[in-house]
Amino acid sequence: MSTRKFAVIGHPIGHTMSPFIHKRLFELAKTDGEYEIFDISPEELPNKISALNELYGYNITIPHKQAIIPLIDKLDRKAELYGSVNTVKNGEIREGYTTDPDGFLKALHFGGIPLRNNVLIIGCGGVARTFAFEAALAGCNTTIAVRPDDLKDVARLAGELNSKILSSSVSTCVIDRISGNFDLLVNATPLGMYPNIDTMAVSPEIVSKCKYVFDAVYNPLETKLIKTAKANGSTAVGGMSMLVWQAAVSHEIWDGSVYNTDDINQLVEDSAAELKKKFS
Known about the structure:
single chain, alpha/beta, 6-stranded mixed sheet, 6-stranded parallel sheet, 10 helices
């Protein structure tokens, strides 16, 4: 029997951690699979879909999460709500899913961080959209803070949330005008990412007013934001946990695989070490 083939598609995609993470997930679940990287430019995507259909399943990253939608047959509920797909399972029909929300929720849950009450999200790009939707679905009072240049974009996001999720309570502001205390601070910007590891999206004063912190940045494993939050006695979780959990959810979709939390935590640490080697 031939080995099942999987892949991740994106552009550019040189430093992806997906092959390392998914190989380990296959091993942990005792399932077979080869996992490759396909660097596909936006203009090439329609012509590559027949080759992608030969795979058992595949993951999608920037810039194809929306462009793939017309090329598959069906979306699950959350992929349709988000208008975004990062996982496809091929079969009689080609079904698209988004595992980013599940990765986020699992990273919070297993990191001991509740998603409730007052939530502050920094940024309004694709990952911020995921966080904002999940906070709204959880009934949180959500504030999305951005740079002045992004005020039009964040207004559109807030409008979409308020129209799609009728119970949502979403407000927006510029980062310099953040005020009050928050239960959870979520950084959805690349600030603090290697090599600019001495930067933070918000001031230490704002961090001190947040009980919990989640930073979507996963390189380094502990960003300056995470370290600052922990120094204040806050519970803080970094983005590598979300990256690994959303990959694990892909395997749940493909195979029904179930993972032990300790194994995932170990994979988070091992992935961080592997990433460090890539950039050393």
